[in-house]
Protein 1
Amino acid sequence: MDRHADDHEKGARVRRPLAALLLAASLGLATAQQMEASGALRVLGFGVPDEIASVRVERFEELYPDVELQLTEGAIDQQQLLTAIASGNPPEVVYLNRDDLSTYARRGALQPLDQCVEQAGIDMGQFRPAAVQPVTLDGTVYGVPEFNNIVLLIVNTAALEEAGMSLEDLDTSDWDAIARFNEQLTAVDGGNVTRFGFDPKLPEFFPLWVRANGGQLVSDDGRTALLDSPEAVEALEFAVGLHEAAGGRGPFIAFRDTWDFFGANNQVAANQVGAWPMEQWYVNVLVESSPDAPVAFAPFRDRRGNVLSFATGSAWAIPTGAANPDAACAFMAAMTHQDTWYAAAQERARLRAESGTTYTGTYTGNLAADERIFGELVQPSGNEAFDRGVEVILEVQDAAFSIPANPAGAEVRQAWTDAVNRVLNGEQSAAEALAQAQQEAQSALDEAWER
């Protein structure tokens, strides 16, 4: 930031508009968190597709009427951003995948946020540990967590009943039981797949299977790739093997591509899948598109029987050389404050009630926000399945892990993704693919840490 925190406080009481003070108080924002900010603020990678975004943006604009906010949505292009930074004309804020953030940070592309955190009164302790870990490199915070995605198990109860099974028969801690479940519930008619038993969600959930098997893909200090560990190889062999009941990866993907994933005739309603791990946001999709679908939710468990989940999500960061870091800091603080989240969740709950659908919650990286949202806004709906789904999501939040922050996050992820795909396509064995991925990932880590 351009001015010290104590200088900011001395002038704030004199220069801060009364209206902004009153609004800050109404939002529950302490005056120490109301910063001085004006001028242009360019935000890259974020738009306003729904009320969760629009309400929070409106709150920021009300708090900081002198800031000229410009939002540009779309995925961050790494080379484009690095070029903009090198040319001295980066945006003030970027909205990006948390797993990619440490890669930019190590390259000097992002500003450390220690001063911003202090000036804006951002309590990093209010965020979930699994959300903070990926934005913290070598003990320095480079990003403020936003949404938090975690994984739970979604189950088609109609398929279970058809097979004479119950939800208790699906125990993900027992991999032999998963294989039997998959065989029993996979259906093929005339050579065509009509239902998968168990979709392992590869390659994206490969880290979940490795962790369930007692391994991890990157060491806790972010310096060592562990992609070819015995735990990883065994996990990949098992998860890929679940495709065989459907005739292999080709028929599996061909059938999955026919699903009406976001529609009323989705794979649960159409009885096209038995069970699969999935991010919690899909519960909202199901409750809106097919509230009467035969569905149940359960925690995913590791092989020792412990509840396990995989956390991913987004974060805000300030590029190096940003022209208006004060406004950038104010924006990040306002967008992730618990009261801003709560206001957005209130609007979503109101809209759900107005349309006669169930509000199943808004899942943030902010513990304090989640406690208020689920303590005050999310009420029993009378739909036992979805009410239980909310309970499961809250249960697995605290059991979630994330990939440790490392300066080659994108490269490491690409290495294991490519390896999984090579095995799925029959090009290499799991051991061969992961040995190659290990070399690629470790080389990327070594090079990144030497920068």
Note: The chain is about 45% helix and 15% strand.
Protein 2
Amino acid sequence: MAGRRLSPRHRRLIVPGVMTAVMLVALLGLGVWQVRRLAWKQGILAQIEHAESSPAMPMVGDATPFGPAIPSEAAATMPAAYSKVAITGRFREDLSALYGAEVRQTPDGVRMGAQLIVPLERKGAAPLLVDRGWVPLSRQRPIGMPTGDVTVEGYIRPPDRPGPFSAHDDVAMRRFYTLDPAAIGMALGLKVAPYILVALGQPPPDLFPDPARRLPRPPNDHLSYAITWFGLALALAVIFVVWSAKVLRT
């Protein structure tokens, strides 16, 4: 018995139906991928929350209990990125530098400022660049600098690399726009550790430098992206059903 032949109206649905099915598979796949990314990102944020609430781990010399952030020749001396640590040494105020440019509101009004980078000399290890926090470029009094041995708590930040549109560093003025410890250390005449320590804490009584309050957190927009993809898939399905019903009625 020969199969029933499709009517012209049904044949009109074949190509749009196949295209709609392909697009639905793609949209649903993107939505599922974003749901998986959401679970992955929530795990990372939970780890950051745990690290932030835990005491800083002491780091003596180049020994580290954390393990490398990425496999490399410097793995033995590279703690995991964004580990919360406590490091002891002496600041070299005479070799301080500035990184970046940021406008902030201060008690004296809106001021342009930058992050204060100071080398920390350590016993039995290479000097370490410390981001002590934001300072205004123009100020009425000097920035306080601890003397003698100090213990700085903060998190490990991996080095940045300049991009094609990065501002050029002003080595003579010790103004840097890429947080590359090797390049900054070379400009200061030092061979420094291949990572940065970003100080955590509250600002001193004279307000500056203003250190970081918490560990950095990656953006987590995966739920909104998943809703967008699933919403588009639903809208596409509804449009196709409505259009198909109209085609079959005519």
Note: The two ends are 29 Å apart (CA to CA).
Protein 3
Amino acid sequence: MLLTLTLREVERATPRAAIVRLALGGRQFDYAAGQAVLFGRSGQADRRPYSLATSPAECRDRDELELLVGLDAVGQTGPHLGTLTAGMSVDVEGPVGSFTFPPAPAENRFLFVAGGTGIAPLRAMLHEALARPAPTQISVIYSARTPNEFAYGPELRALAAAGRLSLWQTVTREAEEHWDGAQGRIALGHLRSMLQDTETLCFLCGPHALVREISPLLEQLGIAPERVRVEEWK
């Protein structure tokens, strides 16, 4: 499905990412939590994939799509988007992708491991899991380069403070600003402390290096390969 939509709002999430909200205008757009769309300026052929950052139910309630768009070192998008401004027309094609939260998972324990903007599809899945009628246990491990690069960080911390999930964050570069949390890459011990049991359904999304390292660690902890779902990029 190809839609031309109006960009409703652009909100800076981190120095290297922006939250982009697109008005659906009453049109139906069906997708599964975790899927993406191909997104670009209206009328041009160059469209690139971005994960949807809200659950399908939230999309219907808000009549909008929400994306987390990566920015370069000077805060710009690529040429397929140019300068994003409220009111501009954009093209959205999709949904695309098979990295999804199952409609009726047998498990009621979930682990989400994100690196950088990989939090976007996991946030959609997380919201889907939180809305389940059955009791669930949810853990989130989130790795970013610096403390100010945790997109949706305040929301995740608020959910953790409310007891709705367990959250562990780490930064992989030396923190120039104040940071009293963990530093370094995600290791075996971190995963062990956040796993509920071996029947936990795990979702990984982030740079290739992160996914390549985490998958075998989960296997060492007794998680069967079919319980590890992966989305990665280079």
Note: The two ends are 27 Å apart (CA to CA).
